[in-house]
Design goal:
Length: 385
């Protein structure tokens, strides 16, 4: 099997990359190790920037038929009763990852991408100059080989591809978090709003998605969450004790899905190029969920990578030039988002935040808009309902 590009990982970044590259006329394989669609920890909020990108992919109209929740406001709360409401300049969507990933995967197939679920990439040999050989294990259990002129790594935060990048993340001495997610029903008055509830030990996001379900996604410090050892009800009670706004909301909800967990969540530097492969999405670097720009950022990185490979295949840039240019364009697009997201996360999860909140209360709407503008990508103007 020979392809121009092998994309490893079929999340938003991987599927978007495959679609864009196939439309440019390249032969593309999209490889996903899990059964499809996998359920993943995600805030399941799609910003206007992300909807803009999906419209350019030609898939937004398909997703609209699923009736995503139209989100027009953010409600941010803290311990001791403080809260802030921010009207979003452009509406976002509440949409489950299962729905989004399925639609993107199907769109990739419709665009003549060779899509392979239950396909594990065991190792990769080669480089962008001479081409790659991938060793695969599919559901039959036999090892197979695939050749590709280029490989895009869209493997999420944890994978054996690329190996060096993951080892660097794992060795990073920093605060460790876990992420959890589950769907709930109830709270009929909870509409058109994404809520962020901060407390000592982490924060919890809530927003409605399609099928009238509410997605709960929390980022928790390991020291806070570990003692509960998957005792989800007790963990939710501990979170609610820290923030009465969250307590009031959880009392109106009943769980309708299993919890999904990911651990550890680290906010390392990451690399847009690792082991001579272009890296996209969370595999390059993990963006704070509170920013609401994770999915949009993944798709933007896919666009940058597809553009870079087009220059390489056309012969206008060498492998080294393409890699260097991709790093530059990636840093230009994302550096300020990572910097300010990291700054805000550190500030909001510290115990002194409520006191500061009181002192700055009159300026909070201005600060809220500042946070949004500095942790999100540029909205290009597509209609978002």
């Amino acid at each position: 099997m020979k392809y121009d590009v092998a994309v490893v990982g079929a999340g938003p970044a991987g599927s978007a990359s495959a679609i864009l590259l196939s439309r440019l006329g390249f032969r593309v394989a999209l490889l996903e190790r899990q059964s499809f669609p996998p359920d993943k920890v995600c805030g399941e909020f799609l910003s206007a920037e992300g909807i803009d990108d999906l419209q350019q992919l030609g898939i937004a109209s398909t997703l609209e038929t699923l009736h995503p929740e139209i989100i027009r406001q953010s409600h941010i709360t803290f311990p001791k009763g403080r809260s802030l409401r921010i009207n979003l300049e452009n509406s976002g969507w509440g949409l489950s990852r299962r729905a989004l990933d399925t639609a993107l995967f199907q769109n990739a197939m419709e665009n003549q991408v060779q899509c392979m679920a239950r396909t594990a990439v065991l190792r990769v040999e080669g480089n962008l100059r001479s081409g790659y050989r991938l060793y695969l294990r599919r559901e039959r259990g036999f090892e197979e080989k695939m050749e590709a002129r280029a490989v895009l790594a869209a493997t999420g935060r944890w994978s054996n591809l690329p190996e060096k990048s993951d080892r660097q993340h794992a060795a990073s001495p920093q605060r460790r978090f876990i992420g959890i997610k589950a769907h709930f029903r109830g709270a009929p008055d909870f509409r058109r709003t994404v809520e962020l509830h901060f407390f000592a030990g982490g924060y919890c996001g809530l927003n409605r998605v399609e099928r009238d379900e509410v997605n709960l996604c929390a980022l928790l410090e390991e020291d806070f969450a570990t003692p509960f050892s998957r005792d989800w009800n007790t963990l939710l009670s501990a979170m609610a004790r820290e923030n009465h706004h969250l307590k009031d909301r959880l009392e109106c909800l009943r769980r309708c899905s299993d919890f999904v967990l990911t651990s550890p969540v680290l906010f390392g530097k990451g690399k847009p190029v690792a082991d001579e492969m272009l890296v996209v999405g969370d595999a390059s670097r993990f963006l704070d969920p509170f920013s609401g720009d994770g999915i949009a950022g993944a798709i933007r990185s896919a666009r940058l990578a597809a553009s870079a490979l087009r220059r390489f295949f056309s012969g206008s840039q060498t492998a080294e030039e393409v890699q260097a240019e991709y790093v530059r364009s990636y840093q230009k697009e994302f550096h300020h988002r990572f910097f300010f997201s990291n700054l805000v996360r550190r500030s909001l999860t510290l115990g002194w935040t409520p006191s500061l909140f009181t002192a700055l209360e009159r300026r909070l709407p201005v600060l809220g808009r500042w946070v949004v503008s500095h942790t999100r990508g540029k909205y290009l103007g597509a209609k978002t309902v």
